[in-house]
Input
Amino acid sequence: MKIKTSAPGKLMLFGEHAVVYDRPCIVTGVSSRIHVEIEKTGGHFMVDAPGVKDIRFVEETVRIFKEKFKTGNGLSIKTSSDFSCQYGFGSSSAVTVATILALSKLYGMQLSQKQIFDLGYKITLGVQGVGSGFDIAAATYGGTTYFVTGGKVIQPLNVKTIPLVVGYSGIKADTPKLVKNLKLKIKSDKTKYFGIFDQITKIVEKAKIELERSNWEKVGELMNKNQQLLKSLEVSTEKLDKMCQAALSAGAYGAKLSGAGGGDCMIAIIPEEKRQNIKQAIKNVAGQIMNITNNAPGVSLG
Output
């Protein structure tokens, strides 16, 4: 029996970095997905995962699943991806979650979304040592989610598709390194950095309301404020700043980096009639447009 599953990548909308320190964030699933195909073999364990940057996520998922549920080790796992792991869309989390669902179906188990999240978060911490779990939540639940560190709160928001343009900076970010570097800065000035996180929290709480109202102009204003705070954390880059500024100059309501910073992507919330102009403006400063939709479904069979 062959089981096929898939899970979405993610984009952080609000609250990056603050979410590592028990603050909320808002994350959305994207249409680009990681696909997993799994079947039992006669005792051999084989992984073919070309679209995954770090195969340890698959290996650790199998190991922990086997340990927890006393399952066999004879498995063949193949993965494919709709996107490059270079883009910072959370391929590691998506493959972890898709593998958990595939294993549960292969062994005839019914795991709830929360059980899948808890297992996925444990695996991520085991491999990376750091992480808040928002990308595991996005892969599991999909849609657009209000999330607090470690899954203390996982609240799906009633949001329609968000009018976003996504631009890739051309630079792969090292998220664990950025998180660890910021941790060192916080040790030297906790008051300053926790003050910034408190301001980001207020933005996230307001954005949660405005997203559900589809008040895109207001959401854009909040994005701009969030970006200024991320700049004060020194996680933005000159390239990301240029891409954000280009989008705003072409008529975007708001723009900010998405994720840990240091590279990866920026997002702009836009009036639909200006979509093409905004895309072109981002291209004009050497940004790469990612043609993906947001608010995508979570992990599923097939």
